[in-house]
């Protein structure tokens, strides 16, 4: 794994995502996980309970 400073230089110009955009993307990811059967609603609830989100 490269040093952190090297990674920052390589990816420092990537656009930042706002908190609202991140929430939308998270919801889309969860919807996909549930729709495709990768996770159950219980899995998602357990994740939030364990992470404190």
Structure description:
The chain has 53 residues and is mainly alpha-helical. The protein has a domain at 19-53. The chain contains three helices and no strands. The protein is elongated, with a radius of gyration of 16 Å.
SSE blueprint:
Blueprint: H1 4-11, H2 19-36, H3 41-51
- Helix and strand sequence: HHH
Number of helices: 3
Structural class assignment: mainly alpha
- What oligomeric state is this? single chain
Binned strand content: under 5%
Name the features.
single chain, 53 residues, mainly alpha, 70% helix, elongated
Please give a quick description of this structure:
By secondary structure, the chain is mostly helical. The chain has 3 helices and no strands.
């Amino acid at each position: 794994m490269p040093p952190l400073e090297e990674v920052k230089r390589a990816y420092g110009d990537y656009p930042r995502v706002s908190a609202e955009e991140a929430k939308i993307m998270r919801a889309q990811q969860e919807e996909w996980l549930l729709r495709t059967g990768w996770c159950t609603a219980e899995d998602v609830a357990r994740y939030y309970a364990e992470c404190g989100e």
